[in-house]
Structures are given as structure tokens and as C-alpha cells.
Amino acid sequence: MNGLSTVLILVGLFLAGGVYSFHKQQMPRSVVVLLAIGSVLALAAGVLRIEGIWE
Description:
Elements: H1 3-24, H2 29-51
Helix pairs in contact: 1-2
């Protein structure tokens, strides 16, 4: 696992925590959805880099 994969996964987890927090604060649904999409994309990119599929 290289540094970029680690950073992408950590950013994805950070954004996932933001999704939970924003949902609990009853922020607008569009903000929560955009944050969730960003979280999924960051996590997927990190995992794909670990697997060597996307370098």
C-alpha cells in the first residue's frame, strides 16, 4: 500500500464521518448526498490503487 492509497482511504472515511454528522444536524439533503458521493469515490479510488487496478 503506498501513501496515496492511504490518503484516499482516510479522506473517504473522513467524508463518511461528515455524512453522518451532517445527517444528524439535518443539513440539506443535497449537501449530504454530494458528500456521500465524494466519500464513495475516494474510498473506491483508494481500494482500486491498493489492488493495482488503477495506477
